[in-house]
Amino acid sequence: MKSMTKLMVVAMLLVAALVVAPVAAARTIDTNGTIIYVGEENLNFAVGGANGFNAGSANDITKLVHFTDQTADKTIYINGSNFELKKSDVGTTTGAYHVFTTGTEKAQAVGNVEIQIPRVDLDVRLYKEGTAADKLGTLKDSVDGKSVTRKEKLVFRVDTNLNGFTTTTGAVDAPTINIDVTLPGGGVTNEFRGVKLSGLFINESTTFYASDKAGNPVSINLSGIAGMSDAAAGTYTIQAKWPSKTDFYGKGFDSNTATFEVLTKVLAISSDKDSVVRGNSFTVTITGKSVEKYHLYIKEAGSIGEDEYPWIVEGQKGFQSWDLVKGNEVRRGAVFETTAGGTRSIQFDTNTSTDDRQFTLRVEETGVTDPDYDEVKVRVEEGDVTITASGTGVYYMGEEISLSGTCTEGNTVYLFLTGPNLKSNGVNLNTLKPVTDGDDKSFKDVDVEADDTWSYKWNTADIKGTLDAGGYTVWAVSKPRWKDNLSDANYATASVQLKTGFLTATSSGATVAKGDELKITGNAMGDPSNVQVWIFGKNYYGNFNELVAKPATVESDGSFEHTLKTSDTKDLAAGQYFVIIQHPMGDGEFGVDVQNKENITAPGMQAVKITGLQASDAASAVINALDSPNVDDTYVKLTFNVEEAYITIDPIGDKAAGSKFTISGTTNVAVGDKLIVDVTSAAFGPTKKTEASGFGAVSGNAVVEKGDGANKWSFEVDAADFKPDQYIVKVECIETETSTTANFNVVEKEETTPTTVVTTTAPAGEVTTTAPAGETTTEPTPTPGFGALVALAGLGAVAFLVLRRK
Question: What is the pTM of this model?
Answer without folding.
Answer: 0.45
